[in-house]
Design goal:
By secondary structure, the chain is mainly α. The chain is built from 5 helices and no strands. It is elongated and about 55 Å long.
């Protein structure tokens, strides 16, 4: 029977459950995102913050608010990209 320590060790070493396989869509996405540089998503996030601030200063509040929601999505995609690169894809 596995203990909590065994579970943590399995996660940290990156051992995968051999019975688990990714779907074809997830595999295709992982294969493509692994080709992108990791800092691309960081720059997209920062760029959208700057663009949102510029629209806010220009008085276009609705556009600013719309673009202001983008950085979180870009940064989450960057995390996903980094995980795919570190853990690999099938």
């Amino acid at each position: 029977m596995a203990t909590q320590g065994d579970t943590i060790k399995t996660v940290r070493t990156g051992n995968k459950n051999p019975q688990h396989k990714e779907g074809s869509v997830a595999s295709a996405i992982e294969e493509q995102t692994a080709k992108l540089p990791s800092d691309l998503f960081l720059w997209l996030g920062i760029g959208s913050m700057v663009a949102s601030a510029a629209f806010q200063i220009a008085g276009q509040k609705k556009v600013s608010n719309f673009i202001g929601h983008w950085p979180v999505n870009f940064l989450v995609l960057g995390l996903y990209n980094k995980l795919v690169k570190l853990e690999g894809h099938e």
